[in-house]
Amino acid sequence: MKNVRPATATAVKYYRRYVALILLFLFVLLSWHGYHHYVDFKAYQFELITQSVRGASAEISTAIAERQRSVKILAQQYASLIQELALNPDDEQKYTELQAIIKERFPDSFAFTISNNNGEPLLGNFELLINELCQLSIRKFVLNNNYKITLHPHPDEYHIDIMTSWKYKDNAMSSGVFFISFKPTIITRILKNAEIHDHKLYLLNNIKKNLIEISSQGTRIDIPNLDANFYLNEQQINRIGFRKKIAYANWDLVDIPNENIFSNYQKERLIQTLLIITGFLFISLVFLKLVRTEEKIRLKSEHEVEKIKDRLEQALSFSDVALWEYNLQNKTFFWSDRSTDIFERNLPTKFEDYIALIPANQQQSVRHSFEQCVTTGLPHRIEHQLITQQSNNNLWVEITGNIDHDPLNFTSKMIGLARNISIRKSIEQSRLSFEIQQKNTLVREVHHRIKNNLQGVVGLLRQHSKYESIDNTMLEHAISQLNSVSLVHGIQSDDSNQCISVAQLVVVICKATFSAIGVEITPSIQSSENTTHYLNEKNAVPIALIINELIFNAKKHSSEVSNDNIHIDVESSDAYITIKIQNDGAILPNNFDFEKAIGLGTGLSLIKSLLPRQGATLSIQQSNNAVLSVLILSNPVLTEQGNKHDGQRKPQNQDKKIA
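^ thats the sequence. predicted structure below, dont judge the formating
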C-alpha cells in the first residue's frame, strides 16, 4: 500500500498539467471555431434574405399579374352588363348585379367603377370610395394603357387598384376602363409566409423613397411602433439586407434584419464557449477524484460485471431467441437448443427442409433474401410464418443474419438469430382490424352526411318549384339528378361494406322518380341463382346519373306515365347485367345517332360524357312504336361485394423483408 500512494500522487500531478494544456488548447480551438461560425452565420443570413426577398417578390408579381388577368377576364365576360351600366349609371339593379358578381369573384375587393375613354368615372361616388388618387390612376391608364400598382390611402381601407380596358358592341358607349380596388390581403399573406424569424419584409414606394407601403402586419397604418411619417429611419435603411424591384408595381421589396440578431448570436457563441470550458473543467475535477479511487472502483466494477454476467446468462435461457448457423458449402443448418421451442417441431437440417416449413406464398421472398445476403453481403432480415401443427399456422418468426468470413476472406457460413414474434404480430393484426373498422364507420358516416346535405338541397329546390317564374321541367331535372346522387350515398351509408347493388339502385331511382307524380312503376328483376352485381365505387355516381337520365327521359317523353307505357327490366348473368328501359309511343328524331352524338339533347349529352370507357355500353334505338334504351354493365364497372375499389382482388403480402 505504501507504493500505491506515490504512484497515485505522480499520476495526479501529471493529470493536472494535462488538464491545463487541454483547457488552453480547447479555448483557442473554440475561439477559432466561434469566429468561423459567426462568419458562416452572416453568410447564411444573407443567403436566407436573398432567397426570401426573391421568392416573395416573384410571388407578389405573379399575384398582381394573375389579379390583372382575372379582372380582364371578368370585364370580357360581363362586357354587356358593363356597357348597360355605362349607358345607364343610375340603374341600381344593374349596379347591384355587377357588384354582387365582383364580390363573389373577388371577396377582397373594396370598390369598383366604370369610366369612359377620357378616364372620367361614370358611376356615382357618393360614399367617396373612389378618391382623387384612384381617379388619377384611371387617367394615367387611359393615357399610357398601362398602370403600375401603388398603395392608395383611404379613411376606410388602404387599397390597391387594378384596371383594364373593356369594349363591347358599337354604341354610344362601346368602350372604356373597368376599375376595381382591392384590399392588399394577398400581398400581406405572401409577406407573412416568406418572412424569416428575426427579419421584417417591407414593400417600399420606389418613387417616394423609403416610404413604407405594406408589411406582413398589413398596410403602413397597421404597423405598430411606426413613425408618423411612415418612412424608414436611418438605422433601418442601413440594415437593409437585400432589395428587389416588384414587377407591375412602383414597389421595392426589402428585408431588414433585427438590430440585435448578430450581436445576440455572438453572445450565444460566447456563452456556449464558456459553458463548454466550464463543463470540461468540472468533468476534469470529477475525473481527478475518480483517479484517486480508481483501484477501489475497478475492483468493485469487476465484481458487478461478474454478477451481471450471471444474470444475463440466466435471462437468455428463458428468452425466445435462438442462434443458427448455415454452412454455405454443404448447405446445412445448425440450431441452438432454444430453437426447438421456437419451431415447435424437429429442426430442419437442409435449406430445402427449412423452406418447406414456410407457407408457399412467402417462400420466394425468403429465398431471395438469403441469396441477396450471400451475393451482396447485405444483412439478412425477414419475418415469415412457420407451418406447425400446434399453432395452426399462426407462428411468426424473425430471422436475422449475416455472412461470416473465414481468415482467408472466403464466404463460408451465415450466422444469425431466430426470434418468436407471434405475440407482436397478433397485436399488430388486432390494431389493423380495429383501424379498418374505424375507417369503415367514418366513411359510412361521411356518406350519410352527404346524403342528408343533398336531400336538404333537393328540399330547397322543391320549394322553389312553386314559383311560376321558374322552369319546373329543368328544376325537376336537376332535382332528379341530385336525388340519384343522394341515393348512391344513402345506399353506401346503410351498407357496412359501402357496396351498391345495381338492381337495388335501379329500384330506388325508379321509386324516387315516379313517386313525385304519384305513379308506381316497379322494375322487373331477373337474375340467375347467386348472381348479385355491385358497382365499383368510383363508377357508382356516374352510373346512377346515367340510369336517372334514362328513366327521367322516359318519363319526360311519355304521353302517359304508367306501367303500360314505361317498362324497366334488369337482367343479370354471371359476367354482366343488362338494364332495359322502353318508352312506348315515343319516337326518335330522324337523324338521331347516339354513337355519333347526332341529335342528342342536354340529358343524352350528359349520359354520353358520363359513360365509362370500359365495362359499360349503351344503345338507344327505335323499336317499332317505342324507344328502347339498353345499358350493359360488366367488369371493371362491376365488382364483387367487399372489393369495391376495383374489379379484381389483390393478394395481401403477409411477409416483410428488409435487406
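The chain is about 50% helix and 20% strand.
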